[in-house]
Amino acid sequence: MRYINKTDLFIVARNSGMIMIGIGLMCLIPIIVDIIYFEFNFIGFLIPSFLSMGAGALCIKVFDKYSVRKMRLKHGMIISALAWLWASFIGGLIMLMVSDLSLINGVFESMSALTGSGVTMYQNVEILPHSILFFRSLEQWVGGLGIIVLIIAVLTRPGTSSARLYQSEAREERLKPSIKATLKQTIKIYLIYTTAGIILYLLAGMPLFDSVCNTFTIISTGGMSIKNANIGYYQSDIIYFISIILMILGATSFLVHYKVIKTRGKSLIHDLQFKVMISVIAIVTVVLYFITNIVPIDLLFTIVSAATTTGASVQGYDMMCGWPTFVLICIMGLMLVGGSSGSTVGAIKLSRIIIFFKGIYKHIREILSPEGRVVPIKISNTKVSEKAVGDSGNFITLYMICILITWALFCLYGHDPFHSLFDTISIQGNVGLSLGEINFALEDPLKVISIFNMWTGRLEIYPVLITLRAFFEIFKR
Question: Which residue of 203, 391, 415, 422 is surrounded by the most CB atoms within 10 Å?
């Protein structure tokens, strides 16, 4: 039985047009920085941008009659998966034209920025044009909220299509009854925290350009810095603490942020994911503080960076490689779990972990209870269905399979097994902390696999699997 037909493909092509136009418009923004710093690299932004907008306009014109067709969730997921690939390709072209990075490295760099993975292919970022540094930061800021989320908020009309596209980027929470109103509130919150971050960094003595770029990368939990030493370049505890606050804000659900004022801060205290995140950060920091000699602020910063999947660092990978193995294993565990769902983080996310373990506990209690008794699962006084428990277990299984396959391939190419596992968990979770295995010299097949990991990690696997199945059906007889 075929699940995808020509009509489905035409619906995907028609609705992808607007996304492609939005991606093209995004690529024009760094030209402002290019002009300010007299770098004259604007052609490198204009050509890919016009290519994206032209292709988008063509899709809209050719397949316009399919705009009246109802969009289903499968269409939204395919559009979302292809949009992230397209955005990475266009960004890669810009990297190629402006900074002479090879296409595969440029696509890797762009995918890494958009997905908030934060691993760079540049050997020295401090010699890059300001426009490219800003572009990488902007990609992280846009990707943190979601390419589709921003574009449908600005360029599309309210309706079923917007709702399907919103779901396709692994988002379920609604701040308002309608998707359009939800997106406006989400963007408003995001802008408020971005503005606050820029101001705080400026007050801490950071230059304006650095303040803007670092805020973009930290609030989005992206972590790809404009300095080779990342946030450690600034050697300032105040800047470290500001970054820690922004990372935690970025890893907290937008729904909780929205309710903070209305509940006078009680939404933070009562949110189970936030409480678990803060508790885990505190416990791991205290335990590792007493069993290691790592500088406390460096330890706290790295733990928060891992738990929030930001990947920003104050210590280079050469220093981290010298940390005790137990510390690195704890960091890997934090990178696996991640922060709250409905935020900018990657990884498995706390909500799934909580539901998964509550499902295990439920099973144990039912075995111990009198025969026939059904033990309900509740989170914050809300009943959790058996389907939600099953979905969490399925996702965690798929997630670990992706890590296992990539790790095995790294080992096949002769990379250090422990360091490879650390870096594989990092890219699958869109984190960015690294022990140095993923760099400019990485073999091209492993770069392609890593791009796939970042892509699946950001979209939470299912949209990618659905897209691959759709393409399989196209070529199936």
Answer: 422
